[in-house]
Specification:
Layout: H1 3-28, H2 32-35, E1 44-50, E2 53-64, H3 83-95, E3 99-108, E4 110-112, H4 113-130, E5 134-143, H5 145-150, E6 155-158, E7 163-165, H6 177-183, H7 207-231, H8 237-243, E8 248-250, H9 251-257, E9 262-263, H10 266-276, E10 282-289, H11 293-312, H12 314-319, E11 327-329
């Protein structure tokens, strides 16, 4: 490891120490000093996108990054997608009587099966229980799980250059048996049943194990198809299955085959919602996470050392579980 990487890791360690110190101080501090480090009553705040009437407003909520629940405390290198925070913002927008419409601005390659389903269910709940329209706009990516959460939207607007589609489920693992043999490494596994170490990286997968895992993938895929079939009235189940073979589409291609309704940007989506629901002159606000000092440290640290961390593989070791996961995820 060269000197540059040692310096980068040293900076990361120093920032970690500073962050921990501030956390300790904030727990014993009082008055305004405590307020510098802790969030207010809400973990988000509103920023005006377009000024107007505060009765019948439109809320914009960004969904950016891999859809994965990593917990409330995401550590030093936080600053990306926060699943619980996003769900909470969506819930509060649905409950707020002053908000008449919601636009979710999606930029994600997808993510976890469970997390994607939770967002989907929250959107449907808002539509059915609060009777509010929910639009989805697509940025650079709205693939796999990104399309899963978009499917129930009342209207989907994609940029012509958006990468979307990738409808399907993936589960991956590595096999290191040959490498282990070359290095003279032997593995001993004690297990309670023949399938306890299914998809182990230290041996070949059996036909029975592949059949078990394939049945799970097929079940999740059928759910994906059902979600799109229920959300897109213009597509039959058979058409969804034909389109959902894992391929990606540009925004223009997705529009041509009926996966999205319009081509445009967030500004176009706002205009369409205003016109369709009589919200001309309404205020448009963007829900954004409240600033936290420890998140600032995390973003700063990531900007300094992220390339080195990725190069060393430390980031994956810290954030990825050992067990394989079924994902609605587009992988390049």
């Amino acid at each position: 490891m060269n000197g540059k990487r040692w310096i980068a890791l040293g900076i990361a360690a120093l920032l970690l120490l500073v962050s921990v110190s501030f956390q300790f101080v904030s727990t014993i501090a009082t008055g305004n000093f405590e307020g510098m480090f802790e969030a207010g009553d809400e973990p988000w705040e509103e920023h005006i996108v377009e000024d107007g009437s505060e009765l019948g407003r439109i809320a914009v909520i960004d969904l950016e990054g891999v859809i994965q629940d990593t917990g409330t405390d995401q550590g030093l290198f936080s600053g990306g997608y926060n699943h619980r925070e996003f769900l909470y913002m969506l819930e509060r927008a649905g409950e707020n009587n002053d908000i008449e419409g919601i636009i979710i601005n999606v930029n994600t390659p997808g993510g976890g099966v469970v997390e994607s389903a939770e967002i989907h269910d929250r959107i449907v709940e808002i539509q059915e229980e609060q009777g509010k329209p929910v639009y989805v706009t697509m940025g650079n990516q709205a693939a796999s799980g990104g399309y899963y959460v978009a499917a129930p939207a009342d209207r989907i607007i994609a940029h012509p250059a958006t990468i979307t589609g990738s409808i399907g489920v993936i589960m991956q693992n590595i096999n290191i048996t040959e490498l282990a043999d070359d290095l003279g490494v032997d593995f001993t596994t004690i297990q309670s049943g023949p399938y306890k170490d299914i998809m182990s990286a230290t041996r070949e997968m059996t036909d029975d194990e592949e059949e078990i895992l394939q049945s799970i993938i097929d079940e999740f895929y059928d759910d994906f198809v059902t979600v799109i079939d229920n959300g897109r009235d213009n597509l039959t189940e058979q058409e969804v299955r034909e389109l959902g073979d894992g391929r990606i589409y540009s925004g223009t291609q997705a529009h041509d085959v009926g996966l999205v309704d319009d081509l445009g940007t967030l500004a176009n989506a706002i205009d369409i919602m205003k016109e369709e629901y009589g919200l001309e002159g309404s205020q448009v606000v963007r829900f954004e996470p409240t600033f936290r000092f420890n998140q600032f440290l995390g973003v700063t640290a990531r900007n300094l050392v992220v390339s080195d961390m990725e190069l060393l593989g430390i980031n994956k070791l810290l954030t990825e579980p050992n067990a394989p996961r079924a994902m609605y995820l587009y992988t390049e």
